[in-house]
Amino acid sequence: MISTSSQFSNRSQGYRPGAAAFPASPTPALDCRDLETQLPEAKAGQRRELKPGESLFLQEDRIDSVYVLLEGWAFRYQDLKDGRRQIVDFALPGDVVGLNEAANAPYGIEALTGCVFACYSRKSFFALVGRQPAMGLALVQMLARAEARAIEHLTSLGRRTARERVAHLLLELVTRLNRLNLAADSKSLDLPLMLSHVADALGLANETVCRCLSSLRKDGVLVLRERRLKVLDLRRLTEEANLSEVEDDETAVTAAPVRRFAA
């Protein structure tokens, strides 16, 4: 069970989960983590290591660097003046943060687990993108997936029921970890989330998330125990997320494996 401490509706014919919300490329995805082989400053040890709960930067902080998550889980969030928090996305290895043009960060970044970030000056980062077409493609792929997730998150917050929101988020995380080859298998993964993280990502109360997880477990859809998720029925989980059915080969959910840059 997730710790209780703080801490895609599309009905068009032929739609498949993964085609929009979790887009898979016909060629293997590229990986921004390989920037370390391309930038001399990365080899000089410019890294940030965070413990769980520590922040890379806070909302409204002035940031002059671009960061690539090399290891661990983190999340982007916005705080309201009254203390309420909205988690807008979870960051996984290979994700890039700090790309926004605004001088002050529109969101904060907090580590869910121990994290390692590679740090780059904006000048060197964008110069590399200009020199390396493969790097530019990797960045475009990453941003396209982030945009698709943002659209799905808006749909969840605006239209999906509480149970559908929970199912959709879990399916999204399974899909993303499979794409990175970080899941134990295509239906099982370590999930370092507390109830409060899920609630803050979905606009729900902790108690509502707990009830949804319990009902999904009782219905034989999934088991979530000691921060480990096991999907028992992938097709049913997809239906619970209000998505089209998963195809038999499950390629719609398990996207292409990551291909690393050549040095």
Automatic annotation (TrEMBL):
InterPro entries in UniProt: cNMP-bd_dom, cNMP-bd_dom_sf, Env_Response_Regulators, HTH_CRP, RmlC-like_jellyroll, WH-like_DNA-bd_sf, WH_DNA-bd_sf
Cellular component terms per the entry's GO annotation: cytosol
Keyword field: DNA-binding, Transcription, Transcription regulation
GO molecular function, one term: DNA-binding transcription factor activity
Organism: Hypericibacter adhaerens
SUPFAM superfamilies: cAMP-binding domain-like, Winged helix' DNA-binding domain
Coiled-coil annotated residue ranges, if any: none
Entry keyword annotation includes Transcription: yes
Protein name: Crp/Fnr family transcriptional regulator
Biased composition (Polar residues): 1-13
Organism lineage: Bacteria, Pseudomonadati, Pseudomonadota, Alphaproteobacteria, Rhodospirillales
Domain annotation HTH crp-type: ranges: 160-235
PANTHER family the record matches: CRP FAMILY TRANSCRIPTIONAL REGULATORY PROTEIN (PTHR24567), LISTERIOLYSIN REGULATORY PROTEIN (PTHR24567:SF28)
PROSITE patterns: HTH_CRP_2
